[in-house]
Design goal:
Elements: E1 8-13, H1 15-21, H2 38-44, E2 46-54, H3 64-80, E3 86-88, H4 92-100, E4 104-111, H5 120-128, E5 131-135, H6 159-171, E6 174-176, H7 182-191, E7 197-201, H8 215-224, E8 227-230, H9 239-262, H10 267-283, H11 290-304, E9 309-311, H12 332-340, H13 345-363
Parallel strand pairs: 1-2, 2-4, 3-4, 4-5, 5-6, 7-8, 8-9
Amino acid sequence: MFEGKISVFDGHCDTATKLMADDTMDLGKTCGDGHVDIPRMIEGGVGAQVFACWVDPDVPAEKWNITTIKMIRRLRAAVEANSGSMGIARSGLEIERLIGEGRIAAVIGVEGGHAIGAEMDALVRLFSEGVRCMTLTWNNHNEIADACEGESCHGGLSDFGRDVIGMMDSMGMVIDLSHSSDSTFYDVLERTSNPVLVSHSCMRNICDHPRNMNDDMLRALARNGGVVGINFFPGFLENECSRETFALWNEYKRERTSLAGKYDGDVGRADGELLGRYMPKINAIKVPGVDVVVDHIEMAIDFAGIDHVGIGSDYDGTPMMPRGLEDISKMQSIAGEMRTRGYSAKETEKVMGGNLLALFKRVCTC
């Protein structure tokens, strides 16, 4: 299925959110308004994909966990409907087996530990539903830890969060530190016995944003044995693009909050009203190209080493993508740019997928 292409393991996409919003969506058919589907994954050489299940923290808290589970089940049904091309992987060895069979390995992730509230049983339920990766936070602080935005609540991990780390380690669930505060990042590295994933983040030295990693964090990640997946979102790639993007995003959020209040907290209805008006503004922002994505990859390699860098596209999580990486079918352009810059086939294979596969094989053993 992937003949002549370097196998890609993408550490993060938000396609599960699209599946949840549209119960007629078929992963087996090209979806014109999204970034990810099976035909384009095959074209891009994708052998494994982490599908992040994200529930907006602006919806009522009592709906977080049940909505997450509904999304997981919708994702599983979409994969099972295309079982000839894709299968759910619950361990590193299953990921490897599915790739070997020429099928895409779908790994279920959860984005945002608010999905479990303050209940350890909820974390265990997610594992039983097939979840093998969870970001401790999204952009909001929660009962587990501080996020990268806003004033600190816990100074990093909470007491409950330290227990969550122990449980995730014991079950074999990958800890994902994208969206976490710097303090949370270091607290987790002191606590965990497993390598961690920073699934979709970029380099702060190139683009100064708190979602990105600094040099010391990269060195610490390498000592832990973890992997950072480079994000394609243009707002994390270049400073000027970041300033324009987040000025627009903050304007959007203010309007969204106001509208959601009028609609009894229905953020989906608010989004539906606003997106059409904001898309021309979004499309007017000049985005960088695939070369800048590889600049971030190179910097990560410089500080963390070739064994600790991967891909975390954030496809279907943003309407903006770099030139040359407009959807998942374009993944091989990263490999091409790396080879042009002098990286060997083996080095390129590690970044495109080998490093993430090694991490999941080490952590997800059951």
